[in-house]
Each structure stands twice: as structure tokens, then as C-alpha cells.
Amino acid sequence: MDLGLTGKRALVLASTRGLGLGIGTKLAEEGAHVLLSGRSRDKLEHAVTTIREAGGKADFVEADLTDPGVVDTLAAAVAEKLGGIDILVNNTGGPPPGAMTDASLEVLAKQFDTMVLRVMAITQRFLPAMKDQGFGRILTVASSGVIQPIPNLGLSNALRSALVGWSKSMANENAGAGVTFNMLLPGRIQTERVDELDEANSKRTGKPIEDIRETARASIPAGRYGTVDEFASVAAFLVSVPASYVTGGLIRCDGGAIKSV
């Protein structure tokens, strides 16, 4: 299938590692001009070099989602390096693990600014141009926890869930303009973030980390963690031209781990 991504212009947030980098790499493989973003210049430079050496087209912008000025920074970079935008992949780092009961209001407010308000503000900045051109794809990476809350990830469960109603509302309001909104929900995808969470669970429970991983694998019908490439391939379809009638969805990429229908 031709995804129609050749020549499309894509901004991928928080794309120095893990799922964000995987999506950016996959979109470049499919012919898109990708703008990676994140806080680490060294990691961004390395990622862009790797993509270019593989024949892809990529640039980067240093951008910190905790910075209130990040919207302007990203908008300027998109104008300069892409000349416009067709695809926006909203991706953020995860908040600290822990019980919701123990989360302070200060931490909650700080994480809400970064993970929710910033995503909404960035999307609002780029949406008018997408509507004017009659094409846009906005994909928000969240977590399986928005359907089945994950133990010891209270902040993530709560904050990412706030984006569910937002994304669905935006999908309903903008589908007629050719702009789709979807959310992609990872289960246990093998990333540095998942490694960190497994290590945190190991310390919290006193169990060896391999026991933590074996328990996790046993809870997944597929019997294993997913790969970044598998996840990124789903993302590439959702932002593709053929996916023009897919909007307002919560798409799972979890090996069947979520227990609900």
C-alpha cells in the first residue's frame, strides 16, 4: 500500500528516543520530511544524521515542552525548515510513577501544563493551516492507561485521559475540513521508558527485574513486549492519505493486553 507520505511535512514532538523517534524514523522511511524535536541537541543531531544516511529527509529543532514559549519555537522551525505542516504527532514524556493518592497538586499542575495544555496549544497553532489546505493529520500518542488504568501510574492515567475527550471533540469539529484526529495507545512497547518503569516496579516491590518483566509478558496475549517499529508502523498508517476516513479513534497497539472489548 502506498501511504501517500512522500513529500508530506511532519512535526514529531519528543522524538529524541523511544516511540517519538520511532515514529519520526518510520515517516522518513515512507518519504515524509520530518522535523524532530526535543531537549537534547546531541541526540537530535544523531537521529537526523541516521535518518539522512538511510536516505530520508529530516531536520530538528531544540524544543522543551516545559517552556511556555515552545509553541512559538516550534512554529518558527516549521516555517523555516518545512515550509508548512501536514502531520503533527503529539508525543510527550511520561510523568513520575506513583499512586494518584500520593501525587502533590504542584506536581499535578506542572505535568498538566506539559502533557495536556502544551499539546492543545501546539495543535491550535497548526490546525488553521491544515484546514486551509484541506489536509491534516493529528496523532496523539497516549497510553493504554486511558482505557485500563495502569497500577502505580496514577498521574499518567489521569492526565492522558484528559486528552481523550479533547481529541474526540476536535475530530468531530474538523473532519469536514480534511483534518483527522486520532490517539494511538501503546501497551508494553520495548523502550527506554518501559525499562525505567520496570526498574521502578522492581525497586518498589523488591522483586528481581526479570520477574517483573515475566509477569508483564504473561499478562499480554501476544506473550511479549511490542517493538518500536511495530508501533511506528501503525502510526504511519494513521497519518497517511489512505486513512482519510479514520478519525476520532482510540487505536490500541498493545498485543491484546487491554482486557476490555
UniProtKB/TrEMBL annotation:
Offer one Pfam family short name for this entry.
adh_short_C2
Which CDD domains has this protein been placed in?
Answer: BKR_like_SDR_like (cd05344)
- Gene3D superfamilies this protein is in? NAD(P)-binding Rossmann-like Domain (3.40.50.720)
Similarity comment: family membership: Belongs to the short-chain dehydrogenases/reductases (SDR) family.
| PANTHER family associated with the record | 3-OXOACYL-(ACYL-CARRIER-PROTEIN) REDUCTASE (PTHR42879), NADPH-DEPENDENT REDUCTASE BACG (PTHR42879:SF6)
Record-given protein name = SDR family oxidoreductase
- Protein source organism: Georhizobium profundi
Which lineage?
A: Bacteria, Pseudomonadati, Pseudomonadota, Alphaproteobacteria, Hyphomicrobiales
